[in-house]
């Protein structure tokens, strides 16, 4: 295993975006590292504002930063708010990276997204596929902003000697995921639909797309472990992939989600709706060489995520199952999106 390059013990550590799914998972993981965790919220600091970001960084003086803050969403959200996705993400990453340089942050990890890779990249996708072809149009605004974040870290390393690194996680899921019907990604969107269909006794549920695209999914707690491994054992300007190492079709995913939720009806795929990228599987050979591998099987992670959803949705009490009824139209089809 490569030697440890950076020790987090007794360091002042800030997770930007710590209220989100990824940030909260990293906070949980850092709780075992003997470091001093800096707490922040959007009410305290708006990271799209340079003045607020710089002032907070000057006062808090973090030594290590996990950059997990971002405006995220699925196909519907990206298509509806392209300017917001591009502008807000550019501002967040530019403000945090520059403030980190000005205030002497020792190490920064920028978390991007696998959607930065070309739509038709080779599979599994190696890190050097970046900027070798056109992006997937359904999330190009977010992807361009994340590519800019990768380049920022590379530029600050070259010009200022900053130990800033970047990583590209695959599709993430887990406790704390976004279950907003109009902004969620594929797993929470499918869970919402399957849960409603089960409770209403629907004969079928509709899924956007053909079901043929293949996707890779990583539990957010595995991502948190990977982020810690990179922060302590990696220092290079090249971005590095974080993935599960295997993928499955959207059809197989929908069947697995239905099984976890307990929906026994038919799945109907609407091929008139967009599929997004045909396949997206990351090559994770480089991070495996650093001693990290995913540990949470998809079925186990989905069951854990659904349990979290049941405990945290507005209606926290389970509804009794109804007898089988005629098929119902589920208005959540707009939420189905996968990067």
TrEMBL record:
The active site is at 142 (proton donor/acceptor). Pfam families: Epimerase (PF01370). Pathway: Nucleotide-sugar biosynthesis; GDP-L-fucose biosynthesis via de novo pathway; GDP-L-fucose from GDP-alpha-D-mannose: step 2/2. Keywords: Isomerase, Multifunctional enzyme, NADP, Oxidoreductase. Signal peptide: none annotated. Residues 14-243 form the NAD-dependent epimerase/dehydratase domain. One of its GO terms (biological process) is 'de novo' GDP-L-fucose biosynthetic process. InterPro entries: Epimerase_deHydtase (IPR001509), GDP_fucose/colitose_synth (IPR028614), NAD(P)-bd_dom_sf (IPR036291). It catalyses: GDP-beta-L-fucose + NADP(+) = GDP-4-dehydro-alpha-D-rhamnose + NADPH + H(+). It is an enzyme of class 1 (oxidoreductase). The record marks 113, 115 as: Important for catalytic activity. Substrate binds at residues 193, 208, 215, 275. NADP(+) binds at residues 17-23, 111-114, 146, 169-172, 185. GO terms for molecular function: GDP-L-fucose synthase activity; isomerase activity; NADP+ binding. It comes from the Bacteria. Its EC number is 1.1.1.271. Catalyzes the two-step NADP-dependent conversion of GDP-4-dehydro-6-deoxy-D-mannose to GDP-fucose, involving an epimerase and a reductase reaction. Belongs to the NAD(P)-dependent epimerase/dehydratase family. Fucose synthase subfamily. This is GDP-L-fucose synthase. It comes from Tistlia consotensis USBA 355. The lineage of its organism: Bacteria, Pseudomonadati, Pseudomonadota, Alphaproteobacteria, Rhodospirillales. The gene is fcl.
């Amino acid at each position: 295993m490569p030697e440890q390059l950076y020790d987090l013990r007794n360091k002042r550590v800030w997770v930007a975006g710590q209220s989100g799914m990824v940030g909260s998972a990293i906070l949980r993981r850092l709780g075992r590292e003997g470091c001093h965790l800096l707490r922040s919220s959007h009410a305290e600091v708006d990271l799209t504002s340079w003045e607020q970001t710089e002032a907070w960084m000057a006062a808090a003086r973090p030594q290590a930063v996990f950059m997990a803050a971002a405006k995220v969403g699925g196909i519907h959200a990206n298509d509806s708010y392209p300017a917001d996705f591009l502008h807000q993400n550019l501002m967040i990453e530019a403000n945090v990276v520059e403030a980190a340089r000005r205030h002497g942050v020792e190490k920064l990890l920028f978390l991007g997204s696998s959607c930065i890779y070309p739509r038709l990249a080779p599979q599994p996708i190696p890190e050097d596929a970046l900027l070798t072809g056109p992006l997937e149009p359904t999330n190009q605004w977010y992807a361009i902003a994340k590519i800019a974040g990768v380049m920022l870290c590379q530029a600050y390393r070259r010009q200022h000697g900053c130990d800033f690194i970047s990583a590209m996680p695959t599709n993430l899921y887990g406790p704390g995921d976004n279950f907003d019907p109009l902004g969620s990604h594929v797993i929470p969107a499918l869970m919402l639909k399957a849960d409603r269909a089960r409770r209403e006794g629907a004969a079928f549920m509709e899924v956007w797309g053909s079901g043929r695209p293949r996707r890779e999914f990583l539990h957010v707690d595995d991502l948190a472990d990977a982020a810690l491994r990179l922060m302590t054992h990696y220092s290079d300007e090249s971005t590095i992939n974080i993935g599960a190492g295997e993928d499955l079709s959207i059809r197989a995913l929908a069947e697995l989600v239905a099984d976890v939720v307990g929906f026994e009806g038919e799945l109907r795929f609407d091929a008139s709706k967009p599929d997004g990228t045909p396949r997206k599987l990351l090559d994770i050979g480089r991070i495996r060489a650093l001693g990290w591998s995913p540990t949470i099987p998809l079925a186990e992670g989905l069951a854990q995520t659904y349990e979290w959803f049941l405990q945290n949705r507005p209606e926290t009490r389970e509804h009794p199952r109804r007898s089988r009824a005629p098929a119902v139209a589920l208005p959540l089809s707009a939420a189905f999106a996968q990067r």
